[in-house]
Amino acid sequence: MPGRQFTASAFHISSSLNLFNDFTHFLVDPVHGDQEDQFENRNVLGNAASYTVPVTLGEFRGKLLMGGIDAL
């Protein structure tokens, strides 16, 4: 049927974070400071799909979009 459209996509996100923080400065360790090192590696996989259908309600024309996203 004209006007209908199916769309699908997939994605992969790879990120790493190395964060140094020092919230209390020298409160716990007055000689060396309280700095912490946080490290993280993250991989995200996912996909998305949608289906668009034209709709008419009286004189009004529009589109109905249905879809979903899934990520791991």
What does the secondary structure layout of this molecule look like, with pairings?
Blueprint: E1 5-21, E2 36-57, E3 60-71
Antiparallel strand pairs: 1-2, 2-3
Short description:
The chain is mostly beta strands.
Characterize the structure shown.
The protein is an all-beta fold and 72 residues long. The chain has one domain (5-71). The chain has strands spanning 5-21, 36-57, 60-71. The chain has a three-stranded antiparallel sheet with strand order 1-2-3, with no helix packed on it. A hairpin with a 2-residue loop joins strand 2 and strand 3. The chain is elongated. It starts with a strand and ends with a strand. The model has no long low-confidence stretch (mean pLDDT 89).
